[in-house]
Design a protein that fits this description.
The structure holds two protein chains of two kinds.
Chain A (H helix, E strand, L loop, with lengths): L3 H22 L21 H11 L12 H4 L46 H4 L1 H5 L8 H9 L2 H11 L5 H13 L7 H6 L9 H12 L2 H4 L10 E2 L13 H4 L8 E2 L21 H9 L19 H12 L4 H5 L2
Chain B lengths: L1 H15 L2 E12 L2 E2 L6 E3 L2 E19 L3 E5 L4 E4 L4 E8 L3 E8 L3 H4 L28 E9 L9 E8 L5 E7 L3 E2 L3 E9 L9 H4 L1 E4 L2 H12 L3 E3 L15 E5 L7 E5 L6 E7 L4 E8 L2 E4 L8 E8 L4 E8 L2
Parallel strand pairs in B: 1-13, 10-14
Antiparallel strand pairs in B: 1-2, 1-7, 3-4, 4-5, 4-6, 4-8, 4-9, 8-11, 9-10, 12-13, 13-15, 16-17, 17-20, 18-19, 18-21, 21-22
Classes of the chains: A mainly alpha, B mainly beta.
Chain lengths: 328, 324
């Protein structure tokens, strides 16, 4: 028997969890089959914060000469990529890596192609300071925003405060957390019980995706197991991936397993955009990749027919969520 | 009953020893001469000079008033070669006997985010940066400069070591100190042998290294293995700096927003003024500390500017460029 006091505590706990839960996810619509995303307690979502983050994301004011915004590289119609081999920032300076999609970024646990950055808030500082991206400084950006009446007003509404570096990164991260994509034809087929959503060829492709080990790394609802591995792209990597930071030879050529959602529109592919098309990607995997001592065991040569290749590509293409890339 | 005794003891303690400011004075030297950027120093027979020397200290412990120990878990120092005075806090002590600390930032703070702090906090966003946005983490020690790689006595090969990663944290053994006590302040003096951070490194080949490399680990570990920090008695010391030591040294890590490093020998507050080449005042600040690194929170157009710093008695100035 619970004492009255315990009952009260219990009730209180229920209320606590209940309120926590609701306001935690209130601003995100979680698609069928997707888990509830975790939102950091110190940066809960709010409508005004998300709106402010969105305005910042699309505003070239964030770069030193006000020429590029986050959305210059993370373009919504390409599922927040740019269609370029490697990205281009301020004064047309080139970045060494290919712009990754921000699709379902709220589910990521680590950031950047090599996964070395631990939080979305912190990640937002990277392009602001990178010489080849915004080439700016967050303290100067803060001063710029403090002089801008529209931003002063928005920060006031969202935080009851003037702009600070912390609030800038919190709002941008909040907006990014809303970039959830889960209404592709695959989702309609798999999670929404619409068996007519995929063609026979696409279903064939899905089976191949499982049979050929793709699903081991590109796993789960978001087509990524979140690991940082070597998929045998090169014998000698110019970009060492995670090893750049750890200096551990076992991390040489290791990159984050990217989501494959919206893959149709996020080419060119891989950390350096070296593969132009999905056909080239399948070509790479069918050869079992290049020899590298860190290459993952699951990358093994396979033989499939031309029509099977086509099936696999058409399956990958049904991961496109047209509402995600058109409504923003 | 125990509580009452404790309470009595605590109040007693508060009554006998009034609050005092504790200031750590890091007296930086290069081969026993006063530290200067851009001035040659010898290291194992090779000439070098620094253009930047910054490092974090954390995990402070002070021993005071007959062997009592106090931990200062929230005190962080971002030290620079040209800055001597660092305020550690106000404490109820009458004398400090020893100090110990770590070079670097403790693991908890090191996994945090610069934007959790204001720009003036040692762990806040800095220019030039003291953190790397990619892997979270602070640079525990940063040394930039030039070394004489080809033996012509002219250091012209750049090196840039920025040490990163929890494993770089380097504990310094307890150092017994002889503080200078004024009415309200206790000054703890240490001698910092700044050239020793670089002991055993082949500076002509290290290049630009912002990572957890063995070179960077060696640099951090040098802080204890080579006794970078030593006790120092400012009064009885035979080492003196006869020349007038007021100076400004610009850091151009960001060409579009250089940082003004300055140093006055005397402790008076200073005024800082930036004018353009036509004498038009672009920025004015007063009541700044007598030494520091000032990052102007203002976007200047490309051009030449003059920064003037005065303390009412002395004035120094320097021309600098902004390249947008």
């Amino acid at each position: 028997m619970l004492s009255n006091k315990n009952n009260l505590v219990f009730l209180f706990l229920i209320c606590f969890f209940f309120s926590f839960d609701t306001d935690k996810n209130f601003y995100l619509s979680v698609p069928a089959g997707f888990p509830k995303p975790e939102i950091p307690a110190e940066n809960k979502l709010s409508k005004v914060k998300i709106d402010l983050g969105k305005k910042l994301f699309f505003d070239p004011l964030l770069s030193r000469d006000s020429s590029v915004s986050c959305a210059s590289c993370h373009i919504p119609k390409y599922a927040y990529t740019d269609g370029l081999r490697t990205a281009e920032g301020i004064k047309k300076r080139t970045v060494t890596r290919n712009t990754p999609t921000l699709t379902n970024i709220v589910y990521n646990k680590n950031f950047l192609r090599d996964g070395v950055n631990p939080s979305l808030e912190e990640q937002a500082l990277v392009p602001i300071h990178e010489k080849n991206e915004f080439d700016f400084h967050v303290l100067l950006l803060t001063e710029r925003l403090k002089k801008n009446p529209a931003y002063l007003d928005l920060f006031q509404k969202a935080f009851g405060a003037i702009p600070t570096p912390k609030l800038i990164t919190q709002s941008i991260a909040s907006f990014e957390r809303t970039l959830i994509s889960g209404n592709s034809r695959y989702d309609q087929f798999y999670f929404q019980n619409n068996s007519a959503a995929l063609s026979t060829s696409e279903i064939n492709g899905m089976e191949l995706f499982k049979k050929l080990n793709c699903v081991k790394c590109h796993s789960g609802f978001n087509f990524s197991n979140g690991q940082i591995v070597n998929n045998g792209l090169y014998e000698n990597y110019q970009d060492m991936g995670k090893m750049r930071v750890t200096l551990n030879e076992n991390d040489n050529g290791c990159f984050k397993v990217p989501t494959l959602r919206n893959i149709e529109v996020t080419g060119p592919y891989m950390h350096n955009g070296s593969l132009e098309s999905l056909e080239e990607v399948i070509e790479h995997y069918s050869k079992g990749g290049m020899n590298h001592k860190n290459k993952h065991d699951w990358i093994k040569p396979f033989e499939i027919s031309q029509s099977e290749k086509e099936d696999l590509v058409s399956f990958l293409k049904c991961l496109t969520d047209s509402s995600f890339i058109t409504n923003y | 009953m125990k509580k009452i005794i404790l309470f009595l003891l605590v109040t007693l303690f508060i009554n006998v020893s009034a609050q005092k400011k504790i200031v750590l004075r890091l007296n930086h030297f290069l081969n026993d001469s006063t530290f200067h950027y851009n001035e040659n120093f010898d290291l194992d027979g090779v000439q070098n000079y620094y253009t930047r020397l910054q490092y974090y200290l954390s995990g402070f412990e002070i021993e005071y008033d007959g062997g009592q120990i106090s931990l200062l878990p929230n005190t962080y120092v971002l030290a620079s070669g040209h800055i001597t005075n660092y305020y550690l806090g106000d404490f109820s002590v009458s004398n400090v006997e020893a100090i110990r600390f770590d070079v670097g930032v403790d693991q908890i703070a090191n996994s945090g985010n610069t934007t959790n702090y204001t720009g003036s906090h040692p762990l806040g966003p800095k220019s030039p940066p003291m953190d790397w946005g990619w892997p979270s983490g602070y640079f525990f020690v940063t040394t930039n400069g030039y070394t004489d790689a080809n033996n012509d006595n002219n250091p012209d090969t750049p090196f840039e070591l920025h040490a990163l990663g929890d494993q770089m944290l380097s504990p310094i053994d307890q150092i017994n100190v002889n503080p200078v006590n004024s009415n309200d302040t206790i000054y703890i003096d240490l001698k910092v042998n700044a050239e020793r951070f670089l002991s055993g490194l082949n500076l002509s080949t290290v290049g630009v290294d912002h990572s957890s490399s063995t070179n960077n680990l060696l640099m951090c570990n040098n802080s204890y293995s080579m006794n970078v920090f030593e006790s120092y008695n400012i009064i009885s010391s035979s080492i003196e700096s006869p020349k007038n030591n007021n100076y400004i040294f610009m850091d151009y890590t960001l060409a579009f927003a250089p940082t003004i490093n300055y140093h006055f020998n005397s402790n008076q507050k200073v005024n800082l003024k930036i004018t353009d080449i036509n004498g038009k005042v672009k920025l004015y600040e007063n009541n700044l500390p007598s030494e520091g690194s000032y990052f102007p929170l203002k976007e200047f157009a490309t051009g030449i500017y003059i920064v003037t710093i005065d303390n009412g008695l002395e004035m120094i100035y320097k021309k600098f460029n902004v390249v947008q």
